[in-house]
Amino acid sequence: MAGIILTRSISRSLLPASKHVKTKGLTRQYWTPRRKPLLTGGRTATLLLSLPALSFLGSKTYRRLHVVHALDKAEEDLEQADYLYSCGDTEKLHQLLLPYKDSEDAELLWRLARTSRDLGQLSTVAPGDKKRLAYEAFEYAKRALEKDDACFAAHKWYAVCLSDIGEYEGIKVKIGNSYIIKEHLERAIELNPKDATSFHILGYWCFAFAELPWYQRKVAAMIFASPPTATYEEALEFFLKAEEVDPNFYSMNLLMLGKAYLMLGEKDKAIHWLSKSRDYPAHNEEDREVRKQALDLLKKING
Question: Is the pTM here over 0.70, yes or no?
């Protein structure tokens, strides 16, 4: 739908960047056929443009590059923030970044947006807090974008957080926001074509509209003269591009490749990718859910 002073060893952390940015002399290296019945009732169709959880993977080691000068407090906290993100320590990460909520630094703000969103998606968080955190995350992402329009991660997280608040705004607003979401994802890719998760999220966007139920499609047509449209072929192209940029980086991308091929009637290719997502090491709750979906689809295909 992001490492700092990190080696490629944590490249499987989600929503990475591959962009070098100079900050006070320090180089930071930043690592998102309709007749077929097998996918009916899926989360993508029933919750229009609900983006995937984009959970942490962070199972690989964290290694710091050697630097020859001291870091200031903000730089140290940025480094610590990306380490905590790679570990999936959501609550500690949120506590670390919250004091920067009034910051003018886009790099701090988009990370705060990301961790606020992640905190809101924890199963232990009350519904009222989930809503509050969703809107807070959106405001942080919005401010990050205002501070640095050339920051690809700000565009990406603005798109993701805008999709999240659509859950509370009704279908008219949600469909209207979908145009904006797509524009910001495309801008993120333009700014950083090496970010696999931006391609993945855009593929998910296309899949959602390709799979849109008839009643939501009818509502969209009543509200908008030209509602958003997409095809499974387009979705597949983005999922494949994400895999090309960073192979095996995300269990959900493997699953969506399988689903896209299934919807296009390419059974053998669907089985290949569904098997890969089934066999993906389960590091978190999202990976386990992906495995369950893959197993269920494989049973239906082979049944």
Answer: yes
